[in-house]
Amino acid sequence: MDALLETRNLSISFGEQEVIRDVNFKAPKGKFLSIIGPNGAGKTTLFNLLSGQLSPTKGEIYFKGQNITNLSAAERARMGMGRSFQLTNIFPELTVLENVRLAVQSQRKDFYSILPKPAKYRKQLEEARRLLDMVFLKEKEDYLAINLTHGEKRKLEIAMLLALKPNLLLLDEPTAGISVEEVPVILEVIENIKKDSENTIVLIEHKIEMVLALSDYLVVIFNGELLVEGEPGVIMQDERVQNAYLGGLSHAASGKS
Ligand SMILES: Nc1ncnc2c1ncn2[C@@H]1O[C@H](COP(=O)(O)OP(=O)(O)OP(=O)(O)O)[C@@H](O)[C@H]1O
């Protein structure tokens, strides 16, 4: 299996509490992998370890075959690891289009482009509009970002993330806090991303129907350990998953987090 991302005995403790314990998994190139588990299982902590927000107490992380355990979040981002920004990178007083254009511009290769300025700008706008189309925000390109709904801001955030052309997308609960009506649109956006690119995607999501609709592979975390991994159909039938998770998963399926 050609893994883009791999963890080996990944562990982290906060004081006495070992929150992630000897987690080993591989995210194969071009596949859609979801990390599931009940509240407090350690999913967000695992994500923070992957993206470099936290350093492990033990174990290693490999990305594109390189040991990145000691690299900062910024260095991992430069290598092509993209994590959703949790809305913190959006400029509220700029238009939707300008937010995405700036993300396109921030791509390193734009700084070295030999195109004259107006042509460069036009190309950035073109790319920004293509991305806004992918996330169904084209009609809102002239809106100030501050005036978007929460769900629309999540879509803008995804467009900005895609502008950086990451090889690996880490999506942390893209439906968190959004209205029930907006959930199917977010699902469609992610399906679009999945179709359009060769990206490897790792998702944390409580809405189990969404996880099942999107994922090639599931990793189940329970009490900080990897309980089981495999294809969704197999995992959902797994007795250990049913025994350990029934409460948590049916809770998640109801849309609560
Ligand atoms: N910085 C920290 N210091 C101490 N304990 C922490 C810290 N971060 C997380 N924890 C603990 O680690 C455990 C796992 O938390 P984490 O947020 O990773 O779980 P989760 O699976 O993402 O939960 P949820 O689905 O509710 O978001 C929890 O018991 C939490 O209290």
TrEMBL record:
This is ABC transporter ATP-binding protein. GO terms for molecular function: ATP binding; ATP hydrolysis activity. InterPro entries: AAA+_ATPase, ABC_AA/LPS_Transport, ABC_transporter-like_ATP-bd, P-loop_NTPase. GO terms for cellular component: plasma membrane. Keywords: ATP-binding, Nucleotide-binding, Transport. The lineage of its organism: Bacteria, Bacillati, Bacillota, Bacilli, Bacillales. The keyword Transferase does not apply. It comes from the Bacteria. PANTHER family: ABC TRANSPORTER ATP-BINDING PROTEIN (PTHR45772:SF3), CONSERVED COMPONENT OF ABC TRANSPORTER FOR NATURAL AMINO ACIDS-RELATED (PTHR45772). It comes from Aeribacillus pallidus. Residues 5-248 form the ABC transporter domain.
